[in-house]
Amino acid sequence: MIATALIPLGFLAVFFVWPVAAIVHRGLSAGGVAAVLGRADTWELVGFTLGQAAASTAVALLAGMPVAFVTARVRLPWIGLLRVLVLVPFVLPTIVVGLAFRTLIPDGGVVAIVLANAFFNVAVVARTVGGLWTHLDRRAEDAARSLGASRLTAFRTVTLPALAPAVGSAAAVVFLFSATSFGVVLVLGAAEYRTLETEIYLRTVELFDLPGAAALSLLQIVAVLAALVAGAVARRRRESALRLRAKEETARRPVGPEWTVVALALAIVGLLMTPIVAMVLRSLSTSDGWGLAGYRALAGTGDRGVLAVSGVDAALNSLRTATDATALALVLGLTASVVLVSLRRGRHRAALVEAVDTALMLPLGVSAVTVGFGYLITLDALPGDLRTSPLLVPLAQALVITPLIIRIMVPVLSSIDTRLRQAAATLGAGPVRVWREVDLPLAARSLLSAAAFGYVVALGEFGATSFLARPDAPTLPVAIGALISRPGELNNQMAYAACTLLMVVTVAVVLLVERLRAPAANLGEF
């Protein structure tokens, strides 16, 4: 089993550890870090990055808690649809979210950035907190109420402390995503507001300041890893809390003031849909009225040939790249999941299992922009110089989505009754046949769900892809970024039309994921 673990760990070593280590080395060499740390504008960047991430986290928590309550504790016919609508913003490409909010707030700015990041992450709060809330025993809260506590007091003194591990886990993940947000800040911040993520991109692509970019990447890695450690601690506390409570049916029809929370949750979901609707309407709006000019223009290269290929070709590139990335990530993620579950079932030390699990999750804790930058300065050493290979983008995208697939599959594989596997082995089936005849049929729906979810994330990946995509083979998010960076009504119409098409594909995949999703595979618990 340890030998099998070398497959995903080897991929991680070559395509993650090596590039990131090269970034760290470059940032430490030649006094790069000291020079960057000595500049006042560096600390302004750090302050704005952490400040907007903290504000986004607070807004996401405030908006996500009522939704978490409704999805966990309320039994109404349309709750399934509500879960789908809440998940849609999270899997939208960041460049799409940025453009959607630019439709509502054309001037962008801090408020737009915070709201967009919160919009993107409400699903994390709703799914993570709701996942624990579903398991909480109502009897403790009812006992507090019978002793005279108001509903608010009972929630504050009984329910909220019990939910604290999930709230902490959600807050750490939202902070992590907001601190490394790229497309949102790039679109809404313009040149006035920059984070460490966008500054690394600027210094690499436009200023060619590689030592400065490496030093900023090192600062970002330190900050992000701190958030990742906090999230891991909170996640372990949440898992411990879940183990202490038997799963039982806690959802019921709302009573009394609970209807107010339901109404608030519906209002929040309505607000989440507002930027999406505004973007669709903007894609149909032209100077001559309503029309499909932007969609028709996708057959061309934009005003004054902004794109090297047509929008249709960029979309096809996205589909091919996402397919390759998903296929690779499924192989790596499924192998890693089997290894982790086998280690947990065996007599291996808990420290070893935790170390392997943490190593496989590391790509979630480091910016995709940093990884893409690392590829540019390392992969020329491999045979064939992968920096110019069309395989580079799928490799980077697979690195991003493999941890998500692992997070979905490990709980499902862990829940398979070991007695079924032992019975098959007793009848003479070897390990491979046990996997094929027992594990795979039981996990098939979740595997399809993981593949669909990984595919849509790869389809909209923008951070690393913006570094690595060749000019003659851009993906659709990269083409959108190029279109909105150039003036002209046609370019804007094409950008909004392309965003709408990406969103439609995303919604279709989310519906498929929800249809296939097994109860144990909570997509919000990354």
From TrEMBL:
ABC transmembrane type-1 domain span: 46-229, 315-513
Bilayer disposition of the protein: Multi-pass membrane protein
Any GO BP annotation: transmembrane transport
Presence of the UniProt keyword Chaperone in the record: no
Sequence intervals crossing the membrane: 46-72, 84-105, 111-136, 157-190, 210-234, 255-281, 325-343, 355-379, 391-413, 446-469, 494-513
One Gene Ontology cellular component annotation held by this UniProt entry: plasma membrane
Subcellular location(s) of the protein: Cell inner membrane; Cell membrane
Presence of the UniProt keyword ATP-binding in the record: no
Record keywords, A-Z: Cell inner membrane, Cell membrane, Membrane, Transmembrane, Transmembrane helix, Transport
Annotated family: Belongs to the binding-protein-dependent transport system permease family.
Name of the molecule in the record: Thiamine transport system permease protein
Protein species of origin: Herbihabitans rhizosphaerae
